[in-house]
Specification:
Layout lengths: L2 H9 L9 H6 L3 H11 L4 E9 L2 E7 L1 H4 L1 H19 L2 H21 L4 E2 L6 E2 L7 H22 L5 H23 L6 H24 L5
Antiparallel strand pairs: 1-2, 3-4
Helix pairs in contact: 1-6, 1-7, 3-9, 5-6, 7-8, 8-9
The structure holds zinc ion.
Amino acid sequence: MFLGHFATGLAAKPLAPRASLPALLIAPQVLDLAWPVFVATGVERAHLERGHLAASPLVLEHMPYSHSLLFALGWALVFALGYLALTRDRRGAVVGAALVVAHWLLDWIAHDHDMPLWPGSARYGLGLWRSVPGTLAVELGMFAIGAALYTRATRATGPIGRWGWPGLALVLAGGFVAATVGTPPSSIDALLVTVAATLVVVVGAAVAIDRQRPAR
Ligand SMILES: [Zn+2]
């Protein structure tokens, strides 16, 4: 899943009002931040196959460290402890840990039999990505709910908070639709760079927006 992960972070703002927008967007993407690094270094394996699943060309052959449930629990602990050390926000740390693990559940819904429970276990996935309309409906629907909850839980104190936030939401939703229905990247390397660059740009924008959108 892609957009649905951001949706969970946005939806969590009322639960963790002290947590910043970048923290709420990073937590549900920790596994997908680790994944490009592991694939680029050959620790995990993936390749692209056009038409593999209707909504995704990704063949995820081996990803025990970024995407097994056991390691997701470990990443959640690492995130929570790091976040707690930086912010002393206990509530945010617990919510953040839940967001890290929620990534595994959402990928299990979207992916097709490539999500391990632990390294070497059988692999699972419900295969939402087999359907383009299903993928668009579920992920856009989740994102709309998450964006509405975040908007309601915060208030704008400046132009970036007022206009930058809906701008970022539109870019994310539009980029997701384009990536889902458009031509896939030419190679797995191009895709890794795209994923990593997207996450860096989104977090950068979130830092600026967060300064002008405090919790209500
Ligand atoms: Zn993932």
